[in-house]
Specification:
The chain is extended, with a radius of gyration of 19 Å. The chain is α+β, with helices and mostly antiparallel strands and about 100 residues long. It is built from four helices and three strands. Strands 2-1-3 form a three-stranded antiparallel sheet. The N and C termini lie far apart (about 40 Å). It has a domain of about 60 residues.
Amino acid sequence: MPIYTTDEMSIEKFTEMVRQHPVEFEPLPARFWEDERWLFEHVAELARLYPEKWVAVYREQVAAVGQSRREARQAAAERLGDVGPLVVYHLESKPYVYPTGPAH
């Protein structure tokens, strides 16, 4: 099925198309949310251990570390196999301010 945006059609047409082709998805497993909670409970310690790295977390442990999200995810997959969704997070060594609105 092609991807459409509302820039290419009216909102009514887009709504009709979505209703004709509903998207099915599986909710994330409880383990994912437990891993995310564990990560944020330990984020300060992990940032000291792995500054400016990406970490993949599985079953409340660091499963892999990488220079990029893809590298961490791939290393975790090689180590663990296909275990489903993983929490993958960038550990910043210092606070950053990210712009969220239009530039002035």
